[in-house]
Each structure stands twice: as structure tokens, then as C-alpha cells.
């Protein structure tokens, strides 16, 4: 009887232990997010607003970013992507489109100067943080607005551009793209090499997201200051996806002092999400062939709607983002990883738990739960990328 009673008490104790709530890290996570400069390497607000203007100085129903969500999440230094679609490459529209994107950010600031401020230096970011204003540094996504003329680098530097993603979805006059089978330069063009050198001299960070592997390695050889990957993830989790970075590339970037800023798009994070689109495309082609049908936009839209009902999209999770951060830290160290969410740029593919600019505390909570010290979390949130930016500024000041 005593043994039975002891066993019963033991089972109750075990049940109580197993049902204990996990440690609540939300308080510390919110404190860290609010007390720390958070730099997100890539947010596509300008392109979103170009398609349909919204007043992001308050709350918006659409998109992933607005002032109120940014404040709630502690986001105070999002790089605004000055994105130029590849179909403008080689045309006059490339430059004017980039100017239009900059003008959108300038409008955001002009209409809400107590909430937003363009930042052209690390000092500007720090001052904005001290003043309680969201800093908006500018990064050019796709180098085609340079238009084959190095003087345009100087022009865009004066306009506030502080990094340039050398190419986007197509090979341009600077670099081959990871997305393009046309490798016309086998990496960088001769002009592209001059672009990298001039960017270093001016104080514009070189962004190797989107470029081909050959172009990446050439940048590593050529760059005088650390390059960055503003919105890329680890290829380890998405084998064969060249848009992400291999382990060797991550280590080489770290050896150069650079930073990989993890992209939140589900297709960047898991193999299941990465292969979802190609699998759907393959099924669509099979559907056309089996039924003797010709491709059309309406037919494809209908097929995709039905396909998604029976094959739900495999969204990544906050843990998947944390896995990428862990992977980089194990490969290269804590000093070489950051955040490049690609908010407003990856559509409805964001991970569960990290759906908009209010969610940075959730990432911080996950880092705490995985054992990251507060000092190291702050490096991920901004310390690492600000170090590279300062290094870039110092090199330019001496040349």
C-alpha cells in the first residue's frame, strides 16, 4: 500500500514537472528589442508604395511594415530597398526608377519628419535612435541604375545610397545573377570590378545577395572592405539553391569581416518551401499535357488556387530562422550574422511567428531560449552590420 501511494505521488510530481510552463522570455525580449538599435538589411517598402501609396506613418492594413508595427517591434533602422526590376536593365528607366524609389522615401520623411529620417551614416542612425525617430538608410537593389557610368555611383552616394546589390534576377552590366542561366561574365564584368573598387572608395557597402557564386568569389578577392549579404540565408538548408550562400561562402565572407543577414522568405529557409513552387509548376505542365490544354494566365491562376487547397504551402517557422542563425554562428562565429527579413519583398511566404515588423521581439525571445547572451543578441540585431558600415566609412575617409 505504501509503495502504491509512493508511486502515485511520484506520478503526480512527474506530471506537475512535465506540465510546467516554459520560462517566459517575452519581458526580456521586449526590453532588448526596445533598448537596442535594430537594423534590418532589406525592406521593400518603396516598391510596395510605388504600386499603391499608403500612409505608413500610422497603421496600414496591407504590407508588412508601418510606423506603428515598427515601433511595437523595436525596429528603428530598416534599410529601405531602392529596387529596380531587371526588365529595366540597360534602359534609361533603370536610373529614373531608382530616383523614383528614393523620392518615395523622401516623401515618407517629408510627411512624417517626427517619425522617419533618412540616415546616411552610422552616426545618423545612432542620432535618430537617440531622438526616438526611425532611421531610414537606403540600399540599392540591382546595380543597373549605375548605367555603365561610375559617375552615377557618386550621384547615388550623394542621394543617400549606402549599399548596392550588384545584380538582381538577371545578369546585368556589372555582374551575373544567381537566378540567371546566362553567365555572360563568368562572375563580374570588367566594369563590375571597377564598380566594386569605386564603391569601396566612396563608402558604399558591396552587397553580394543575388549574384552568382563566381561573382561572389571575385568580390571576395577584390573588395578592400568587408562585403555584406543583405538578405540571403544558408544553402545548407536549401541544397542547390544558388541564391543562398554555401558554407564555404559564409566562412569566406566572415574571414573578410562581412555579415550575412538572414532572409525570412520561407523558400530561403526550408527545402520543402524552396521546392514548392517548382513542384507546382511541374504539376501544372502535366495537367496541361494530360488534358490537351494551352497555357493561359486564367488557367494557371485557377490551377494554382486548386493546387494550394490540396497542397498547402509549407510555411517556415521562427525556429527555422533561428536554425539559420545558429548555423552561421557555428560555422563562422557570432560576429558575422544579422537580419535581412525582406519584408514587403517576399509576399505571403513569411514564417509563422515573424509575419511583420512588429515581430522582432519574437526572434529575440527565440534567441534567448536558445542560450544567446544579450551582448550577442545585440550583435545580431545591429552590432555586426554597424561594424561593417563603420569600417566602410573609415576606408572611404582615408581614400
Outline the biggest β-sheet. 5 strands, parallel
Would you list the SSEs in sequence order as H and E? HHEHHEHEHEEHEHEHEHEHHHHEHH
Nearest-integer average pLDDT: 94
Number of strands: 10
Structure characterization notes:
With 399 residues, the protein is an alpha/beta fold. The chain has 16 helices and 10 strands. It has helices spanning 2-18, 26-35, 45-51, 67-73, 93-111, 122-131, 151-159, 190-202, 213-222, 247-255, 266-269, 271-291, 297-310, 318-332, 360-369, 374-397, and strands at 39-43, 77-83, 116-118, 134-136, 138-141, 161-165, 205-207, 228-229, 259-262, 337-339. It has a 5-stranded parallel β-sheet, with helices on both faces. Helix 6 (122-131) links the parallel strand 3 and strand 4. Helix 2 crosses helix 15 (360-369), helix 3 crosses helix 5 and helix 14 packs across helix 15. The longest helix has 24 residues, at 374-397. It starts with a helix and ends with a helix. Residues 1-21 have low confidence and may be disordered.
Amino acid at each position: 500500500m505504501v509503495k502504491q501511494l509512493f508511486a502515485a505521488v511520484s506520478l503526480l510530481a512527474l506530471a506537475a514537472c512535465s506540465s510546467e510552463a516554459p520560462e517566459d522570455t517575452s519581458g526580456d525580449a521586449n526590453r532588448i528589442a526596445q533598448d537596442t538599435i535594430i537594423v534590418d538589411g532589406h525592406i521593400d517598402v518603396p516598391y510596395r508604395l510605388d504600386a499603391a501609396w499608403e500612409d505608413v506613418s500610422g497603421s496600414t492594413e496591407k504590407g508588412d511594415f508601418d510606423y506603428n508595427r515598427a515601433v511595437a517591434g523595436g525596429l528603428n533602422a530598416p534599410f529601405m530597398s531602392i529596387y529596380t526590376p531587371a526588365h529595366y536593365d540597360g534602359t534609361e528607366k533603370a536610373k529614373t526608377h531608382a530616383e523614383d524609389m528614393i523620392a518615395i522615401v523622401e516623401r515618407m520623411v517629408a510627411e512624417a519628419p517626427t517619425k522617419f529620417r533618412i540616415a546616411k551614416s552610422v552616426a545618423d542612425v545612432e542620432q535618430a535612435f537617440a531622438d526616438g525617430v526611425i532611421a531610414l538608410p537606403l540600399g540599392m537593389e540591382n546595380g543597373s541604375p549605375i548605367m555603365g557610368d561610375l559617375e552615377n555611383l557618386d550621384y547615388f552616394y550623394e542621394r543617400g545610397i549606402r549599399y548596392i546589390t550588384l545584380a538582381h534576377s538577371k545578369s546585368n552590366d556589372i555582374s551575373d545573377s544567381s537566378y540567371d542561366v546566362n553567365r555572360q561574365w563568368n562572375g563580374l564584368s570588367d566594369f563590375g570590378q571597377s564598380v566594386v573598387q569605386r564603391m569601396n572608395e566612396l563608402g558604399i557597402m558591396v552587397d553580394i545577395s543575388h549574384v552568382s557564386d563566381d561573382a561572389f568569389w571575385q568580390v571576395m578577392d577584390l573588395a578592400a572592405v568587408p562585403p555584406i549579404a543583405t538578405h540571403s540565408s544558408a544553402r545548407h538548408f536549401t541544397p542547390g539553391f544558388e541564391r543562398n550562400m554555401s558554407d564555404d561562402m559564409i566562412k569566406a565572407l566572415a574571414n573578410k569581416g562581412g555579415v550575412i543577414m538572414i532572409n525570412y522568405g520561407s523558400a530561403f529557409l526550408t527545402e520543402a518551401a524552396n521546392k514548392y513552387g517548382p513542384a507546382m509548376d511541374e504539376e501544372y505542365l502535366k495537367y496541361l499535357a494530360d488534358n490537351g490544354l494551352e497555357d493561359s494566365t486564367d488557367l494557371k491562376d485557377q490551377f494554382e488556387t486548386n493546387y494550394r487547397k490540396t497542397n498547402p504551402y509549407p510555411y517556415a517557422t521562427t525556429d527555422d530562422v533561428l536554425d539559420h542563425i545558429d548555423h552561421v554562428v557555428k560555422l563562422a562565429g557570432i560576429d558575422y550574422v544579422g537580419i535581412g527579413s525582406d519584408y514587403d519583398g517576399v509576399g505571403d511566404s513569411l514564417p509563422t511567428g515573424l509575419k511583420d515588423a512588429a515581430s522582432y521581439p519574437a526572434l529575440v525571445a527565440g534567441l534567448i531560449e536558445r542560450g544567446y547572451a544579450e551582448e550577442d543578441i545585440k550583435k545580431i540585431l545591429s552590432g555586426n552590420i554597424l561594424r561593417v558600415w563603420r569600417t566602410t566609412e573609415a576606408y572611404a575617409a582615408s581614400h
